[in-house]
Amino acid sequence: MENTAEAATGAAHDSPKPRLHAVRHERAEVIPERLAVVTGGNKGIGLEVCRQLALQGVTVILTARDERRGKDAADSLRSESKLPNLIFHQLDVRCDTSVTSLAQYIESRYGKLDILVNNAAISGIVADEEGLKALNIDAETWTSGRAANLLKEVFQNTYDEAFNCLNTNYYGCKRVTEALLPLLKLSTSGARIVNCSSLASELKRMPNEKLRNDLCNINIWDEDRIEAVLKTFLEDLKNGRLEEAGWPMMLPTYSVSKMVINLYTRIMARRYPEMRINCVRPGFVKTDLCWNLGVLTPEQGARGPVMLALLPDDGPTGCYFDQTEMVKVW
Ligand SMILES: NC(=O)c1ccc[n+]([C@@H]2O[C@H](COP(=O)([O-])OP(=O)(O)OC[C@H]3O[C@@H](n4cnc5c(N)ncnc54)[C@H](OP(=O)(O)O)[C@@H]3O)[C@@H](O)[C@H]2O)c1
Predict the structure, then answer these.
(1) pLDDT attached to residue 22
(2) Of 47, 68, 90, 119, which is best to mutate to test ligand 1, by the most ligand atoms within 8 angstroms of its C-beta?
(3) CATH tag, 5-327
(4) Would you say the CB of residue 285 lies under 6 angstroms from ligand 1?
(5) Per-residue pLDDT for 315 more than 90?
(6) Taking residues 80-105, what's their average pLDDT?
(7) Where in the chain are the domains?
(8) Which of 48, 112, 284, 324 fits a 20 to 30 Å CA distance from 196?
(9) Residue 161 Cα, ligand 1 centroid: separation in angstroms?
């Protein structure tokens, strides 16, 4: 696909709906009471979400874009944590064919899905990792957003990385959610969708006042409007106008991708009131995504997503959580 803002917006529209009956897999002998899919499950928080859900008796499909990394992760969880209820399936959230293949697999084998954890993400930055280490930024400076100026020295905000980031963090989440929705609608235990968000998504981080106010008003948003905003963002990036146009300057693309994840969560929660659909900030966790600068363990970071994946039927929906606490950010 052509690497332009238009292609980024088209990335969502062009996704064909999966043809759920095209490939048959053997039916599972026992259909699990609760079946979960976790995206980006081969490491970091996603791997821990898989482990914690499987420990709670959920049958987990650990997915990863790389077959080898995913299989190795699933094998070690199965053996070290003694979790036979863990299955691997390849899933690249940027690839329509891969998403369709997962939907077909679940449809033929299980005929339903109960939990979807949209965890896969990238930073949208080309980082000079040695330079970053040398800056020795403490967690407080990082999470407050005050590090933005310092980071200009070591972070490159390239158009290609920004494009990939939006295509993974937002369009990837949307692509997977849309493909698996028909199966979530057939959930026997009550469908749950958990979208991984971030502190970077919070509206106090958005300098552009008009957009900040708009982001508070869910009534004006749908997927088309989100795409239009992302297209403007990419255009401003291409034209070197991010700061002037009032976009967040600490990890700009990542922040914007998570702001729209929050919107998408609220849109979907309104559209499917019978499901519990929420987004969560896992905390500042020591993983590759944040160059291992975080202070929490992946085990701690997974607690919020896992709690939301296991919400009772009368639990909240359309809400934002800071780890396990519901907070008002819009
Ligand atoms: N760590 C934090 O402090 C922090 C803070 C706020 C929010 N979060 C959110 O928490 C979630 C997990 O992040 P993490 O910290 O655990 O990061 P991580 O360790 O870097 O893991 C990210 C995962 O996403 C996968 N991924 C990337 N692109 C993908 C694609 N196209 N298709 C499928 N999988 C893909 C990665 O696979 P590969 O191994 O193949 O790259 C990896 O498994 C993310 O949504 C992140 O935004 C993290």
Answers:
(1) 57
(2) 119
(3) 3.40.50.720
(4) yes
(5) yes
(6) 97
(7) 5-327
(8) 112
(9) 15
